[in-house]
Write a structure and sequence with these properties.
Layout lengths: L4 H5 L8 E2 L2 E2 L1 E2 L10 H14 L9 H21 L7 E4 L2 H16 L5 E5 L8 H10 L2 E5 L9 H7 L4 E7 L11 H10 L3 E5 L11 H4 L3 E5 L10 E5 L1 H6 L10 E4 L4 E3 L13 H17 L1 H19 L5 E3 L9 E6 L4 H10 L2 E2 L1 E3 L4 H7 L4 E5 L6 H17 L2
């Protein structure tokens, strides 16, 4: 069936409200997406009818919740095409997943003088954990440069892949630029150098198809709230062999087999990395979101968003004194720009008064802004429920912004 945006929008309650006495237009999807009724109702159902701690109880509710939770793990496995369901580790989000790998991978495999490679377009969550770990272990952080279109310099990357490179950690899709990185090629080159690869997929899964076996990456992580699910939940995918060798990230209940005061033995995968009472309700909400976008089909979503992106760029180009930040040929639905004579924060504040939600600032990617010599950008990030009409209203509003600063 054709992609029916009008019908789809009915599934998102948050879109049907006024902000500053104007109908909400929501263009901050790279920060977090709105939630469909299927997600909201699934979380409500869990806390209304199924609420119980899992894996530990013999009673009916515990068994029911445990089955639902583990079925959600199966859903994630199929969604990203992992080889085994125990390669799916539930976390609080992408940030915790990266920190988990930074802690456990370093503890087992990294020594003084070893090298970690990241890119110049990373979110702070894929920079700071590696900086901390490098400081703790005496390792060296290397950075793949980007060009003025926001594209990775692959020749420079190849030169960075030396004998001491232990891990490459790169974003699949840049949150600040929209650039889609060639992560399959990045992984292939790293593996030829016996270097592991982690991919930050926070901005990818709601826009493009991800197959971790095809990518052959060693780790892949993402957050539920970026793909129409709840906040505070996410996933770390890791190849079985790596996860079996890595020590636990946190200690506590669930991640153990046996505890004595003399010694503790750790649980099998995936439970070794899931200490404490899990966030069952939000895991089930994330599963509902995955089923929602799977029903819509990711190829249809990508095509719709590409049409919106092309239209938005075309219309924005009609405005005076505009500069686009991030013009890679392979992009998802993110447009970052500035007016040369207006501060991004001022633009965003006025748009908010007109009922239009955009993101302004450095987008937790300060090195990107430093590269382009700007304090920040106005970021318009599109999603399945956005329309051409909303883009038209954005252009009208931006013309008003220009008039105010004329």
């Amino acid at each position: 069936m054709p992609f029916n945006t009008e019908q789809l929008r009915r599934e998102f309650p948050a879109l049907h409200q006024e902000v500053n006495k104007r109908p909400l237009i929501y263009f901050d999807n790279a920060a977090t997406t709105q939630k469909p009724k299927a997600v909201i109702e699934r979380i409500l159902q869990y806390y209304s009818r199924e609420n119980s701690n899992i894996h530990r109880g013999a009673h009916f509710l515990s068994q029911q919740a445990t089955e639902a939770y583990e079925e959600a793990r199966n859903t994630v496995q199929m969604f990203i095409n992992a080889a085994f369901n125990h390669e799916i580790i539930f976390t609080r989000g992408t940030t915790e997943a990266i920190n988990l790998v930074a802690h456990s991978f370093f503890k087992k495999f990294v020594k003084k003088g070893d090298e970690i490679i990241i890119s110049a377009m990373e979110h702070h969550s894929n920079i700071v954990p590696w900086q901390i770990a490098c400081e703790d272990y005496g390792a060296i952080l290397k950075v793949i440069p980007i060009d003025d279109d926001g594209v990775l310099d692959m020749e420079a990357y190849k030169k960075l892949l030396g004998p001491k490179a232990r891990l490459v950690a790169v974003t699949h899709v840049s949150n600040s630029l929209g650039t889609i990185n060639p992560v399959k090629e990045i992984t292939r080159l790293a593996h030829e150098n016996n270097t592991a690869v982690l991919i930050d997929g926070a901005q990818a899964l709601s826009h493009i198809k991800v197959d971790v076996q095809d990518l052959d990456c060693d780790f892949y992580c993402f957050s539920g709230h970026k793909l129409y699910g709840p906040m505070g939940v996410g996933v770390l995918y890791g190849k079985e062999d790596w996860l079996n060798q890595m020590p636990p990230y946190q200690g506590g209940g669930e991640m153990i087999k046996e505890v004595t005061f003399e010694k503790t033995t750790f649980n099998e995968l995936p439970f070794k990395f899931e200490a404490g009472t899990p966030n069952v309700g939000d895991v089930l909400g994330m599963e509902a979101a995955i089923k929602f976008i799977s029903y819509l089909r990711i190829d249809e979503i990508a095509a719709h968003e590409q049409r919106l992106l092309d239209y938005a760029v075309k219309q924005l180009k009609t405005l005076d004194n505009i500069r686009f930040i991030g013009t890679a040929p392979e992009k998802t639905s993110v447009v970052s720009f500035i007016f040369n004579d207006i501060h991004p924060y001022d633009t965003g504040t006025i748009l908010d008064k007109l009922g239009i939600a955009v993101r302004t600032g450095h987008h937790c990617a300060q090195p990107v802004m430093d590269h382009f010599g700007v304090p920040g950008t106005v970021r318009v990030s599109l999603a399945i429920y956005n329309t051409r009409s909303e883009i038209d209203q954005l252009i009208v509003a931006l013309k008003q912004v220009r008039e105010m600063f004329a």
